[in-house]
Amino acid sequence: MEQSTKDNLAPLHLHIPEPKFRPGDVADFSDIIVPEVDIHPRPDEHVMPADIHALAYGLVRVLGDDHQATGSWNPGLDNATLQVMLRKMLLLRAFDDRMFRAQRQGKTSFYMKSFGEEATSVATTMALHSDDMCFPSYRQQGILITRDYPLVDMMNQIYSNRGDRLKGRQLPIMYSAKDYGFFSISGNLTTQYPQAVGWAMASASRGDTRISAVWCGEGSTAEGDFHNAMTFAAVYNAPVIFQVVNNQWAISSFSGFAGSERTTFAARAIGYGIAGLRVDGNDALAVYAAMQWAANRARNNGGPTLIEYFTYRGEGHSTSDDPSAYRAAEEYAQWPLGDPVTRLKDHLVTIGAWSDAQHDALIIELSEYVKTIQKEAEQNGILGHGLHHPFETMFEDVFEEMPWYLKEQCAQMLEEQQDKFGPNWEAR
Amino acid sequence: MSAPATKTMNMIEAINSALDIMLAKDPDVVIMGEDVGYFGGVFRATAGLQAKHGKTRVFDTPISECGIIGVGVGMAAYGLRPVPEIQFADYIYPGLDQLVSEAARLRYRSANDFICPMTVRSPFGGGIFGGQTHSQSPESLFTHVCGIKTVIPATPYDAKGLLIAAIEDNDPVVFFEPKRIYNGPFSGYYDRPVEPWSKHEGSAVPEDYYRIELGKAAVVREGEAVTVLTYGTMVHVVKAVVAEHGIDAEIIDLRTLLPLDIETIEASVKKTGRCMVVHEATRTSGFGAELAAQVQERCFYHLEAPVERVTGFDTPYPHSLEWAYFPGPVRLARAFDKIMKD
Lengths: 428, 342
Description:
The complex is a heterodimer of chains A (428) and B (342). Chain A is α/β, with parallel strands linked by helices and 428 residues long. Helix content of chain A is 39%, strand content 7%. Chain A folds into 2 domains: 49-378, Thiamin diphosphate (ThDP)-binding fold, Pyr/PP domains (Rossmann fold); 391-427. Chain A has helices at 3-7, 53-57, 79-104, 118-127, 141-146, 151-159, 192-205, 224-236, 268-272, 284-299, 331-334, 340-350, 356-378, 404-421, and strands spanning 133-135, 212-217, 240-246, 249-250, 253-254, 275-280, 305-310. Chain B has 342 residues and is of the alpha/beta class. Chain B folds into 2 domains: 6-181, Rossmann fold; 215-341, Rossmann fold, CATH 3.40.50. In chain B, 35% of the residues lie in helices and 19% in strands. Chain B has helices spanning 11-25, 49-53, 65-78, 96-103, 106-109, 139-143, 156-168, 233-245, 262-272, 287-299, 322-325, 329-341; strands spanning 6-8, 29-33, 58-60, 81-85, 119-124, 149-151, 173-178, 204-206, 218-221, 226-230, 249-253, 256-258, 275-282, 308-312. In chain B, the strands form 4 sheets. Chain B has a 5-stranded mixed β-sheet with strand order 9-11-10-13-14, with helices on both faces. Chain B has a 4-stranded mixed β-sheet with strand order 5-7-6-12. Chain B has a 3-stranded parallel β-sheet with strand order 3-2-4, sandwiched between helices. In chain B, strand 2 (29-33), helix 2 and strand 3 form a beta-alpha-beta unit. In chain B, helix 9 packs across helix 10 (287-299). Chain B is globular. The model of chain B has no long low-confidence stretch (mean pLDDT 97). The chains are: A alpha/beta (428), B alpha/beta (342). Chains A and B meet through helix 7 and helix 8 of A and helix 3, helix 4 and helix 5 of B.
């Protein structure tokens, strides 16, 4: 090209996404469109993905501003089931509060709360069969709580103590519970996506009836694993449910760094030709209904579904994070979709199946219950206070059988302990 | 009892036989990869297996190594025994996180709650004018990872027995197949006629099931003057050079790089007092560095010369200058001269 022509071109510029609010700003979410309940009615579970593109851009809701459950997505749960759902979400919240405090008290190294996102792990799990396989990310402790996994085992893992089923090897909250249909949490993000597809493919190839469900955050949809998993699931029509918990924040990076300025995360499904649903993630009944729809579809050989739960991370990423350093303080209070526990409670009260007094009493009961379990767990030790699994367990389970060089290294490590602690150190 | 029926097989046929036997023996075995299904693989390792065992046992995949290996981890978590093929070792990198952070650590991080009995097969190595993306030898990336076994056969007989053992192993195995010797043992003299496997004793392969234990090396030539530690294609190149120059070398085919057969290595080096390590992979931080370190830690006072490394150069694998890159007869002869003089 001639130089003179080039001189007439406008300079290119690079777009760096910026969230709407930073510390000191007043959070104003009036631009977020909260559609009416049932703006996109529940389609038949055998629908062609191409016929429901609107659902990938809409917002499935069941609970209206009047706290009533209405519309075609209403799962019609009985009062007892709704009370169980509320109880599980409150137990999760009580557990999170207690374990967050334990970290602040120096009893462990790390914790992550799911405050504000409780519906996306509790209501989803309730809509699955108890033997369906869950491939969680790191903020789905609600799955274990919903499936009645012993809280003391969760705490033992968090404390990395001698009762820890994972032998103190994993960062706190990276649980594994095969018997409860809960896959080992990696810590590397979205690696569980293709694994969930593989599990579902295996189930289908065996003529099994179980399906798999997998969770990730909106930030980690940017990982290649997400897209590889979507391709495989589409190619083999795998009975898997992909879930994106869009809580707006990936540590300090807002969802724009995963592409939210242009489209929804549910709409990622469209390019793969799979069903996509965008759901009010703070509406426990909508979350339940979406998962139930996707599970029925998968179980009837209808293939995969991608569900985006539009929600908000109410607190920091983890105990190592201070969100006041990068986002406006009042964002959660201003969040237009409210709080999932409060909304479910308001619904139950409105239909006459619950009361404020019962609610307050349950919060106290669960808090006391968690404290009791915590005392039990601490009998097994807390991190760094000596009550851990035996030293030599460090070398176990690298392989099924320990090879010669690990035996050598184990012997070396035990000698080091003797140098460090003196004779009879094992008795200490 | 009569000896089991053997058949002359090249390495591809032996691998195909191992896969066929394991598909028939164990309903949990599943084979997947790019072009492995109807077509039978670009190197024909899975030829005929889909027609015989069905489409849900042997099937094609999207071109996504991360997906292939990640799906394999999930299948293993379900209880299957996946045997994915990565078409060239050079393509394995998109799947590396799934191998290193997932497959390799699953047993450990879950304290035996979940395991990953997966065998990743992949043709590796050069000498086929494959250029820098069809010739690499990335084995040391995997031996460096705790929780993966790394296996490399050098004959059809070993390929079949080791592959069956790898598939039956309850931990993840990376099984690198030296593609230069799929059809015949390569002497390193690229300008000479290719020798077929039928002239090599390693091509007599039992038709039935047998296994060769992982972690056991093979002494392929006994000798007194120098120990050569090698594997894959280079086993045959070293044998040819040793024969041509009349060197009384003890040649050890490692067969399994991890776990390493340290007893066989130590006994041999203490006997000969000299040690050469030979691989086609790049030199710096290659597996030869680990071998040299192990030998000097265990045999230092028996050594009469420094451990010699004969390897590929630290460049990407070149295309037109392949034979200047390859650690062939000239480089080996110079190394033998050096180590025997010291």
